[in-house]
Specification:
20% of the residues lie in helices and 40% in strands. It contains five helices and ten strands; from the N terminus they run βαββββαβααβββαβ.
Length: 167
């Protein structure tokens, strides 16, 4: 493990996230990961933050609502397209994604939620703020394109408490 600044690989991280990254949540002994393609990394409240969006229909939503942390694992160099595809199209309600995809859960350095082995860049985050989307404040074009079935997101603002590369 090589500790890095949260923004040291930000360009590479955001490029990779657009192709898929793993959002992992552990709550009450249950572990699940899902693929994310949207996220935001920034600096607010005097701290680095990683903001993720989780639709209310997702199994991950049920879990993240019961915890105060999450991890994001990003494959920069490694090819994990098949695993990302599976974790983005199958529900943790019906599958153990770690077994189905032979994913390795590596212990977090600061948080209890593990990171995904085989990925290159990892963020460990503590949730400090959540915001449920208010459809009345959403642009009509975005509503039509991204929420035709009114399956909205909650935004989770996670303070980045550790960021690092694994080999």
């Amino acid at each position: 493990m090589q500790e890095v600044e949260y923004n040291q690989y930000l360009t590479e991280a955001l490029d990779a996230i657009s192709k898929g990254a793993f959002l992992t949540v552990k709550a009450g002994g249950e572990l699940n990961t899902m693929t994310i393609g949207w996220a935001n990394v920034g600096y607010i409240w005097g701290k680095p933050f990683f903001t993720v969006l989780v639709r209310h229909s997702r199994h991950t939503f049920e879990l993240i609502e019961k915890t105060d942390e999450f991890t994001v694992s990003i494959p920069l160099e490694s090819d994990m397209r098949e695993e990302l595809n599976f974790c983005g199209t199958k529900s943790g309600r019906n599958y153990d994604k770690f077994i189905e995809c032979s994913l390795t859960a590596l212990s977090g350095q600061v948080v209890e939620t593990p990171v995904i082995g085989g990925c290159d860049l990892h963020y460990e985050c503590k949730i400090k703020f959540t915001q449920v989307m208010d459809e009345d404040n959403l642009d009509a074009d975005y509503q039509a394109e991204w929420y035709p079935e009114d399956d909205y997101h909650t935004l989770y603002f996670g303070e980045i408490v550790k960021s690092y590369l694994t080999e």
